[in-house]
Please model this.
Amino acid sequence: MKNVAWMLCLCALLASGLAAGAPPGTPSNNGRVLYKWVDKDGVTHYGDHVPPEYASQEQHILNSQGYEIKHLDAQKTAEQATAEEQKRLDLEQRQLRDKNLLSTYASVQEIERLRDQRLTLLADQIKVTNQFLDTLNGRMKKMRADSMRFKPYNSDPKAPSMPDQMAEDLVRLSTDMRTQEQNLKQKRSEEATMSIQFESDIDRFKELKHIQ
Model:
C-alpha cells in the first residue's frame, strides 16, 4: 500500500509539472526536479528534497516528466573507501605482474629454469649455513667442557674463577650461533616462499598463454 501511495504522489507531482506548461518529454521550464530515494525500511519515496537523514544515500533525480536526469551514488564510509582503494591497488598489481610475466618469459620452461637456479642457490646457502652451525656447535661443546673446570660451573670451593677471555668467548660464540640459526630460518622461509611464488607464476603464465 505504501508503494501505491507513493506512486500516486509521484503522478500528482508530475501532473503539477505538466500543468505548469512543460511540453511532454522535456524538463519543466521552471527547472523543477524530483528526488527519489529509499528509506531504512526499503520504501521508495519521491519529493522535492531529500530528508537530511537520507542525504548520504543513493539518490535519483527526475525531471518533471519522470525521466532520470542525474544519479547520485551513496556516500562511502571510510571503511568502504579504503576497501575500494585496496581493491584498485590489488588489480593494478595483478595487471603489472601479468605484464612482467609476458615480457620476461617466452615459455614455461624459462620460468622453470630460473626457478631451479634460484632454488639451487638457496639450497647451497642453507647447506653452508648448516655446516657452519655444526662447526660452532662443536666449538661450543668443547668450550662448555672446558668451563666445567671453573666457577660458577664447578662447585668445588677451590675451583678457580673462569678467565675473562673464556667468558667473553662463550658469549660471543652464543651470539654467533643465534645469528646463524636466524639466518638458517630465514633462508628456509625464503626457499618455501620462492617455490610457492614460482609455481603461482607458472600457473598464471599458462592461463595468460592458454596453455593446458
Summary: Strands lie at 34-38, 44-47, 59-62, 68-72. DSSP finds four helices and four strands in the chain. Confidence is low (pLDDT under 50) at residues 1-6, 12-29. Residues 164-209 form the longest helix (46 residues).
